[in-house]
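Dear Dr. H.,

I hope your travels went smoothly. While you were away I took the liberty of generating a structure for the chain from your last submission, since the lab meeting agenda had it listed for discussion. I wanted you to have the full record in hand beforehand rather than looking at slides cold. The sequence, exactly as received, is reproduced here:
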Amino acid sequence: MPTPASFDYAILRVVPRVERQEFVNAGVVVFCREKRYLAARIRLDRERVKALWPEVDLDLVAQHLEAARRICEGDATAGAIAQLSQSERFHWLVSPRSTIIQPSPVHTGVCDATGGLLDRLETQFLS
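The corresponding predicted structure, in token form, is as follows:
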């Protein structure tokens, strides 16, 4: 029987115009130290973001979101941050920012296994 483990997660939000405080959920980042798991799922709803700011550069936004996924994977092409430990990468990704892509506060959960965890969080927060 799998051993339950705690995990942390944050939602990546696209905030086209920070002064308006409107956002669209566009990704989720999950970290489970016990299971040595760090992953991100990205789902950018281009139409919703465009509705908030028609002039936004959606291709640039998509590139930055994709970089977060690659950092989670430790992809060498994602730069020096991707070479840090899983914990350091997670904390870097979820640290507060005032840019167009901002993380939510970090939340905690418990899982028996990490398989299906991203699917569940994607359905819950990105649909």
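Two observations you may find useful: The chain has a mean pLDDT of 95. The beta strands are 5-14, 24-32, 37-42, 101-103, 107-111.

With kind regards,
E. W.
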